[in-house]
């Protein structure tokens, strides 16, 4: 049972994949009506656990409407006051039969939304993954009206009006407080632009056979949700009993300027939390004392600085060059005045994470031609603004973040992590991880610096292991978000400054009993 849950929680489907999976189930002999009965029965149980005693249910023309009508019937028999609203006069056959039966039980169906009586909550069964075109005319007017009622709205499968794959609003959409996603997570649940319409999301597992999922999605599937199971599987735990600090990874951070000293400290604290064996930090000479005082265990490399207080060139200790390290993380707080150090950094033959000013300098140099010179793995961690500067030819990342990050990784050959509420990570073959859980508490200056250090630290530790780079980056993204969630639970969403965030990284892992 747990194994199935772990497997299902990683799966993400598009509308067309879901249709193909359902098609296989029906072709194998499962009657459509029986499946609708099963699914809607499960939804009814969840609805009864969530809300009120009188309900208005919106009924669409397809099987989303059919699900809604089975829920209506079940709630009616459980003693709820139930009213239906449907702006349609034509329905798919099964839906039409359920409507006829519901009405025969005395459940009223209104054609005009204004007639729907006042009720405790609403259920949205207008459209599911069958929505094909923008919602217009009287249906759009009705949806806008219902959104203004201020009642809790429970959507079946997906809020009506949301595109199942991109998460965009097609005309207008129901603003749900709660959405029951049916069978498998649809891609829209991982797209930032859909989140405020989805509300609290819950998966209703109705036992889709794993073989059908695999047959349609392939093995491994191209898009996966990061879960605690996938994340923990790449963590460097337990450590081997016999080891030494250099075997546990040596990370070089290149960061900070006189103007942005804090970014260097936060990146370093993120790296420290990764457990990396040895941490070296190259900063402008004048930052050395403050870094030593915050990170007594790290080797601080003071570099000559420009007039503006940026690193002028890398001055590594004697007998050391960039190949002495297992990974480099470069960028936070550098300012673009540090651009002259870039050719050396780009030419290094070890894993390289670029963030913040590292990305701005890369964009100035020409992202794709510059990265073509690299042999070792590169990880880019842009937010949307940085992404647009790095990849100006890729369509607006806000309209389909998953597609945008995939194109960027394929074009550049790098592992690209696009930051956001649902951070997405792609590799150069187009495989994608999406982080399905996070908190807006992380939308705060410096929290990205912590992530850069964490990614660098994990990459340095994994350098000799055969774990794909994107899996390690996914683990870091998951860990970072979980620390934000834990910190927000204890301190509210206002209490998660970037320094505090670094203090919650360890408890995340410890709470999972993996110490
Ligand atoms: N068949 C079953 O037993 C199952 C049904 N499920 C439910 O079935 C849904 C998918 O059902 P359907 O494929 O029937 O699709 P939908 O019920 O999502 O909607 C399709 C209907 O809406 C119409 N339509 C599409 N866009 C429109 C627009 N902009 N304006 C007006 N009309 C529009 C279409 O012509 C079609 O009649 C799922 O979301 C889910 O709720 C599944 O979850 C589980 C199994
Ligand atoms: N609404 C949100 N929900 C969840 N996480 C968020 C949200 N907004 C931002 N984040 C996360 O916060 C971090 C911000 O990073 P970044 O924009 O680089 O900030 P900074 O450069 O100040 O450190 C990213 O990891 C991002 O995914
Ligand atoms: K719906």
TrEMBL record:
Entry's cofactor comment: Binds 1 potassium ion per subunit.
Cofactor(s) named in the record: K(+); Mg(2+)
Residue ranges of coiled coil: none
Positions of AMP binding: 419-423, 448
Alphabetical keyword list: ATP-binding, Isomerase, Lyase, Metal-binding, Multifunctional enzyme, NAD, NADP, Nucleotide-binding, Potassium
Binding residue positions for K(+): 64, 124, 160
Catalytic activity from the UniProt record: (6R)-NADHX = (6S)-NADHX; (6R)-NADPHX = (6S)-NADPHX; (6S)-NADHX + ADP = AMP + phosphate + NADH + H(+); (6S)-NADPHX + ADP = AMP + phosphate + NADPH + H(+)
Catalytic activity, EC: 4.2.1.136, 5.1.99.6
CDD domains found in the cross-reference section: YXKO-related
SUPFAM superfamilies: Ribokinase-like, YjeF N-terminal domain-like
Pfam family, one: YjeF_N
UniProt cross-references to PANTHER family, sorted A to Z: ATP-DEPENDENT (S)-NAD(P)H-HYDRATE DEHYDRATASE, ATP-DEPENDENT (S)-NAD(P)H-HYDRATE DEHYDRATASE FAMILY MEMBER
Role according to the record: Catalyzes the epimerization of the S- and R-forms of NAD(P)HX, a damaged form of NAD(P)H that is a result of enzymatic or heat-dependent hydration. This is a prerequisite for the S-specific NAD(P)H-hydrate dehydratase to allow the repair of both epimers of NAD(P)HX.
Record note on quaternary structure: Homotetramer.
Name used for this protein in its record: Bifunctional NAD(P)H-hydrate repair enzyme
């Amino acid at each position: 049972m747990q194994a199935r849950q772990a497997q299902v929680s990683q799966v993400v489907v598009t509308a067309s994949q879901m249709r193909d999976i359902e098609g296989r189930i029906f072709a194998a002999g499962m009657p459509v009506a029986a499946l609708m009965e099963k699914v809607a029965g499960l939804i009814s149980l969840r609805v009864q656990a969530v809300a009120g005693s009188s309900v208005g249910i919106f009924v669409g023309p397809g099987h989303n409407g059919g699900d809604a009508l089975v829920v209506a019937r079940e709630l009616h028999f459980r003693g709820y006051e139930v009213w239906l609203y449907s702006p349609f006069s034509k329905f798919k056959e099964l839906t039409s039969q359920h409507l006829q039966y519901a009405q025969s039980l005395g459940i009223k169906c209104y054609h005009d939304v204004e007639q729907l009586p006042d009720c405790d909550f609403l259920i949205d069964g207008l459209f599911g993954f069958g929505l094909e075109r923008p919602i217009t005319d009287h249906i759009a007017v009705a949806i806008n009206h219902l959104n203004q009622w201020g009642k809790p709205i429970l959507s079946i499968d997906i809020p009506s009006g949301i595109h199942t794959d991109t998460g965009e609003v097609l005309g207008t959409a129901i603003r749900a407080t709660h959405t029951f996603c049916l069978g498998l997570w649809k891609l829209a649940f991982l797209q930032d632009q859909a989140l405020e319409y989805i509300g609290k999301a819950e998966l209703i597992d109705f036992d889709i056979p794993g073989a059908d999922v695999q047959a349609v999605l392939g093995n491994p599937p191209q898009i996966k949700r990061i879960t605690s199971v996938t994340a923990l599987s790449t963590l460097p735990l337990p450590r081997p009993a016999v080891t030494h600090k250099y075997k546990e990874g040596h990370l070089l951070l290149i960061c900070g300027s006189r103007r942005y000293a804090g970014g260097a400290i936060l990146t370093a604290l993120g790296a420290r939390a990764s457990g990396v064996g040895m941490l070296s930090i190259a900063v402008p000479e004048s930052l050395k004392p403050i870094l030593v005082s915050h990170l007594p265990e790290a080797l601080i490399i003071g570099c000559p600085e420009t007039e503006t207080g940026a690193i002028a060139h890398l001055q590594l200790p004697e007998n050391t060059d960039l190949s002495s390290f297992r990974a480099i993380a470069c960028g936070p707080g550098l300012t673009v005045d540090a651009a002259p150090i870039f050719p050396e950094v780009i030419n290094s033959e070890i894993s390289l994470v670029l963030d913040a000013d590292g990305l701005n300098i890369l964009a100035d140099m020409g992202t794709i031609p510059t990265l073509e010179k690299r042999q070792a793995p590169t990880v880019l961690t842009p937010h949307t603004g940085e992404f647009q500067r790095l990849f100006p030819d890729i369509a607006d990342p806000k309209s389909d973040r998953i597609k945008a990050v995939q194109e960027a990784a394929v074009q550049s050959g790098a592992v690209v992590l696009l930051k956001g509420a649902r951070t997405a990570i792609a590799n150069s073959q187009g495989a994608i991880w999406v982080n399905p859980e996070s908190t807006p508490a992380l939308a705060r200056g410096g929290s990205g610096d912590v992530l850069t250090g964490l990614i660098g630290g994990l990459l340095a530790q994994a350098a000799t292991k055969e774990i794909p780079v994107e899996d390690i980056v996914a683990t870091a993204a998951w860990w970072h978000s979980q620390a934000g969630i834990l910190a927000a639970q204890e301190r509210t969403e206002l209490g998660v400054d970037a320094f505090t965030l670094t203090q919650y990284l360890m408890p995340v892992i410890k709470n999972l009993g993996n110490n």
